[in-house]
Amino acid sequence: MLCLGIETSCDETSLALVDDKGLVDQITFSQVDIHSVFGGVVPEMASREHLNRLSPLYQVLMRRSGAQKSDIRAVAVTRGPGLLGCLLMGLGFAKGLVLSLDIPLVGVNHLHAHLMVPGLEKDIPFPALGLLVSGGHTSIYLIKSPLEFVLLGRTLDDAAGEAFDKAAKTLNIPYPGGVLIDRFAGFSSPDEKLFPRPYLDNSNLDFSFSGLKTAMVYHVRDNQDLVLQDDLPVNHDLVPPEKLALVCASYNWSIAMTLKTKLKRALDRNPVKSIILAGGVAANTMLRRAIKDLAREYQIEAVIPDLSLCTDNAAMVAWYGRMLINQGLCHSLDLEAVPRGRPIPRDYLKLDSKHEHLCNCS
Ligand code: KG4
Ligand code: ZN
User: Fold this and answer.
1) Is the CB–ligand 1 distance for residue 107 below 6 Å?
2) Is the CB of 160 under 6 A from ligand 1?
3) What is the full DSSP assignment across 45-59?
């Protein structure tokens, strides 16, 4: 069964086709260069860009993959959380397609899709603990099965990705700063005393990164020479000054160790077979290493997606959507977008008799 996935929740316009074996093809247009001028995503511009890009990207994907429209048996679309205007662009396009092709539609929770995408590459042992770390979220889930997610902890303020991006802004490192902080960190070893590991002095599984961000602001206020000069070409070949590399390594270490400590606490309370690392920040070198170490310590599997599947992509939407359709679950054309901050309802419908052959359920 070929399932088309559509992702437009933030600043990537992405379309992908998956079949029973895995990813068939994917095409993504990243708006990062457009928004980097403004130091962050401008929602209105992002929505308009999705609108302009969706049809041409769909046509390229179909031509390049050799798939026929009649091969597509279902459409999966990110329905939230995300920027409302952006989500609506994806939903509108998805609804147009399912109307014209007379196939089922399923709305996908973007966060669950991030957590389940490693399943594209290998089987995930359940139950699992999932650490979702992105620009908008930092959450720990107990995942009993691909359909049962229990939220164990979440950030009370900034997300880990935001902590990276805001620190980068303070240092005049271009958006999205997480990638460059990660790269600069590779040029040094961390000073473990330079920044706090925030919000560990409690017994819960929540996070709070706003204090860490403030610690960076104060550190830079007292060390203005850390700030990158405007005329410096900050590209991926730049070797950072030694002092900046040390700050990046230390800040990155504080974030990675905070995440590891809370995850360890969650593992002590919830015996599981694997740890899944997901979301844009899952691309972070130090964090990937920390999670692998933790899994080794607990003798469980570390499920860490390929770098290409960490940031927003439609492969994860198509893959998780296909899983839902296989379970006989779908949505009607009334499917609504759910913006950031609002819970995503579990409002699936059952596939109708015309499409129930797509279901694997016994
Ligand atoms: O999941 P994602 O692509 O978008 C959403 O927020 O949904 O995550 C984007 C975030 C940004 O904050 C970006 O700075 C961060 O992921 N990020 C990284 C790395 N690559 C992306 N943070 C740290 N290290 C990285 N290598
Ligand atoms: Zn995301």
Assistant:
1) no
2) no
3) HHHHHHHHHHHHHHH
At residue 158's C-alpha, the angle toward residues 237 and 297, to 5°, is: 75
- The residue behind tokens 């979702």 is 132
Element housing 167 (H / E): helix 160-170
* C-alpha closest to that of 338 among 135, 93, 91, 29: 91
Please give the Cα distance from 322 to 73 (Å, whole number): 10
Q: What is the CA radius of gyration of the chain?
A: 21
Q: Is 158 in the pocket of ligand 1 (CB under 6 A)?
A: no
Tens place of pLDDT for every residue, the chain, 362 residues? 899 999 999 999 999 999 999 999 999 999 988 887 887 889 999 999 999 999 999 999 999 999 999 999 999 999 999 999 999 999 999 999 999 999 999 999 999 999 999 999 999 999 999 999 998 899 999 999 999 999 999 999 999 999 999 999 999 988 778 999 999 999 999 999 999 999 999 999 999 999 999 999 999 999 999 998 876 665 667 889 999 999 999 999 999 999 999 999 999 999 999 999 999 999 999 999 999 999 999 999 999 999 999 999 999 999 999 999 999 999 999 999 999 989 999 999 999 988 988 888 65
Q: Is the CB of 190 under 6 A from ligand 1?
A: no
Residue 203 CA to ligand 2 center (angstroms) comes to: 28
CB 246 within 8 A of CB 191: yes
Task: Choose which residue among 29, 134, 181, 255 to substitute to test ligand 1 binding: the one with the highest number of ligand atoms within 8 A of its C-beta.
Answer: 134
**Which strands, in side-by-side order, build the sheet including 128-133?**
148-154, 138-145, 128-133, 274-278, 301-303
Full set of structural domains in the chain with CATH: 2-116+312-358 (3.30.420.40), 125-304 (3.30.420.40)
